[in-house]
Write a structure and sequence with these properties.
Its cofactor is Mg(2+). Its EC number is 5.1.1.-. InterPro entries: Dipeptide_epimerase (IPR034603), Enolase-like_C_sf (IPR036849), Enolase-like_N (IPR029017), Enolase_C-like (IPR029065), Mandel_Rmase/mucon_lact_enz_CS (IPR018110), Mandelate_racemase_C (IPR013342), Mandelate_racemase_N_dom (IPR013341). GO terms for molecular function: metal ion binding; racemase and epimerase activity, acting on amino acids and derivatives. This is Dipeptide epimerase. The chain is about 40% helix and about 25% strand. It is of the alpha/beta class and about 350 residues long. The protein has two domains: about 5-105 and about 335-340, 2-Layer Sandwich (Enolase-like, domain 1), CATH 3.30.390; about 110-330, TIM Barrel (Alpha-Beta Barrel), CATH 3.20.20. The strands form four sheets. An eight-stranded parallel sheet has the order 4-5-6-7-8-9-10-11. A three-stranded antiparallel sheet has the order 1-2-3. A two-stranded antiparallel sheet has the order 12-15. The longest helix has 19 residues, at about 85-105. The chain is globular and about 55 Å long.
Length: about 350
């Protein structure tokens, strides 16, 4: 099996500021296995970096490239550890893309998911100063669903600004573990008044008592877990504490892990969101193939970057149109990829 790694720098259209910190660029790693493409976006709060992803992939290079059966995806993934879930995701995606191309079918057909209703995606607004936030909100007011990053000192004022700028948009918020229990008790009723329809990750990932207290309070706004959800076991662990989970392929280790987590979430009666990290159309195309299984979708990664490195996925406002080509359906934009290559390659 032919093999190539491409460490790349993605440039964000706007400074992406959340409760964890701020960035203007992200470093991802693209993996090419024969004709199949995968992407790894480092999940920083899980200790991952682009360098660690590359090291993991190189460590397993011989194992991966010696596999001759293109349909033995689960078998091959079973030989790889979980030290880097984003790197596993790159392998998983590339293998699924390769198999779909060899069979001549798009990924959603390969997974048996064609024909399902596809939710619209939300578009993310970062933490920002009031006037800058107002301008960004006005620029995306035509989108039907906005996801607002919170976890700063002006959360309620920020949502009020966005509600005024985008009166017809549905609003979801994500605190990225930036609230205390006291802050949540003050904010959630007021956010509900502003029409917020769900809240992601209000507390730290180890504040189980806080989540239990929040669920018992019955504010009427669904609470979703994001940061701690990496596997089906995590879904089961959090099922009694939240109303839903946000699954990302970079945390589940790809499509195979995501399918197990989705089944577990449904078995526990949880609502389901499919999200992404800062990713190109490669990673998001793979997640989009699973979108028919979700209640909510937050797959706006390609909209947040100025240098998407692949074509094939298109956005008609909040409706994502997947390519009809086999596999992931993406085509690499080689000039953009070459311009984004990091010197470490």
């Amino acid at each position: 099996m032919e093999w190539a790694l491409y460490p790349v720098e993605l440039r964000l259209r706007n400074t992406f500021r959340i409760a964890h910190g701020a960035s203007t660029t992200r470093h991802n790693v693209l993996l090419n296995l024969d004709d199949g493409w995968g992407e790894a976006a480092a999940v920083a709060y899980h200790g991952e970096t682009a360098a660690k992803i590359q090291a993991w992939l190189e460590r397993y290079r011989a194992t991966i490239t010696s596999s001759y059966d293109p349909a033995a995806i689960s078998w091959l993934l079973g030989k790889l550890d979980f030290e880097s879930r984003a790197a596993r995701a790159a392998v998983d995606l590339a293998l699924h893309d390769r198999l779909g191309q060899q069979l001549g079918v798009p990924l959603r057909h390969l997974l048996g998911l064609n024909g399902l209703e596809l939710p619209q995606t939300s578009v993310t607004l970062p933490i920002e100063e009031a006037e800058a936030l107002r301008q960004q909100a006005l620029a995306v007011a035509h989108y039907p669903i906005l996801k607002v990053k919170l976890g700063g000192p002006a959360d309620l004022a920020s949502v009020a600004i966005i509600r005024e700028a985008a009166p017809n948009s549905r609003i979801r918020v994500d605190a990225n573990a930036g609230w205390s229990r006291e802050t949540a008790a003050e904010l959630i009723p007021a956010l509900a008044e502003l029409g917020v329809e769900l809240i992601e990750q209000p507390f730290a990932v180890d504040d189980f008592a806080g989540y239990a207290q929040l669920k018992a309070a019955k504010y009427g706004v669904p609470i979703f877990a994001d940061e701690p959800i990496k596997s089906a076991a995590d879904v089961a662990r959090w099922a009694s504490l939240v109303d839903g989970v946000n699954l990302k392929l970079m945390k589940t280790g790809g499509i195979v892990g995501a399918q197990a987590a989705i089944a577990t979430a449904r078995a526990h009666g949880l609502q389901l969101m499919l999200g992404c990290m800062i990713e190109t159309s490669i990673g998001v195309s793979a997640a989009w193939a699973l979108a028919g299984l979700a209640d909510f979708v937050d797959l706006d990664g390609p909209l947040l970057i100025a240098n998407d490195l692949a074509t094939g996925l298109s956005f008609e406002t909040a409706s994502i149109q997947p390519a009809s080509a086999p596999g992931l359906g993406v085509q690499i934009d080689w000039p953009a990829l070459n311009a984004a290559l990091l010197e470490t390659r």
